[in-house]
Write a structure and sequence with these properties.
This protein has 373 residues and is an alpha/beta fold. It has helices at residues 10-21, 39-51, 63-70, 88-100, 121-132, 152-155, 168-177, 183-193, 197-204, 208-216, 218-225, 227-262, 269-307, 321-351, 356-371; strands at residues 28-32, 76-79, 109-113, 138-144, 159-162. The radius of gyration is 23 Å and the shape is globular. The protein binds zinc ion.
Length: 373
Amino acid sequence: MTVWDVPGQDHAVTALRTAVERDEVAHAWAFIGPTGVGQEAAGRWLAAALNCGSFTPPCGACDVCHRCLRGAYPALWEFVPTGAFHRVSDVREQWLRIASRSLSEGRYKVLRIVDADRMNDASANAFLKGLEEPPPRTVWLLDITDPDEMPDTILSRCRTVRFNAWRDDALDAEARRLGVTDDAERALAVRAAMGSPLQLRRLVGEQGLDDLRAHRAWLSLLREGGPGMAIVAARALDDEIKRRTAALKSAGKAELEELASHSADELPAGVVRQLNERAVRREREARVVTAQAALDDLAGWLRDCLVVGEGGAPLIHVDDADTARGDAAALGARNLIVALDMVLSTREALESNVGQGLTMEALFLQLSALAYR
Ligand SMILES: [Zn+2]
């Protein structure tokens, strides 16, 4: 393995690596960029670089490096939101407590806050206190998609590093690595991933491209079938969500069983409760993420409908330009823009944990009203 293996993020890696080499690692970093393009890997490599005992850390080969890269090192923490927002109780009772605790192993703590822009005011204020008096040998990493959502008081205390969406050639290499040998399928997955390796993994995963094709067909389904089809589309999405969360459920159960099999006595009730809570959280998160990914697919399709007549911009759905032309002619540019706006606001509404089934049904009904003749 080459050291600092963070594909597509040369700029961020250079900044972090240089800081380590000069022993000038800031105590807080803002990782600004789209979700899941390499922030996790960068954080883990940084933890390895700061804790690896080799002459030129990170070596990438020692036990410390290995555990950091797996996310299983006691000085490395990755905090994910426990609901729609990071809770103030999590900030006080976990983040700040862990930051001030002395290390059982390692030299530097690396504390990464996933979706840091999902702190509410109370959480941000509590966290700011911790940032103002940083404990020694503690590095905060804040994943931020939208810096406008972060208070300046926090941002101004962080060193900023940009993370970029992946380029198509990097996504293509990743799709190959994941075993997609068919050129046309790979091209569609790469274009539809729109710079996100997370989306790419969904698309090349089980039924991913079939789901994508179902999502892009919603518009013609609604314009030909009318409001009755809104219920059909909502149900189909619900089935997809059930299918995707079922896999998570069985993974959670397996985790619990494995833990129980390693312990001679019965697991403490607290541990079981925590694991169950985590499973519920993951499942809720997966429901929202699945619905949002479907909306991303639909937004990409509407975008294609808008540009298909122009001849300039390359299409995402290279394999189905004819249907895009049909949808474009039936709706017209004005309605396509209205539809795109509806899709994007629904996507945003899902962030705040609104009832996802009803929200999606309402969107499909609105779209059918717009498109059905
Ligand atoms: Zn090492």
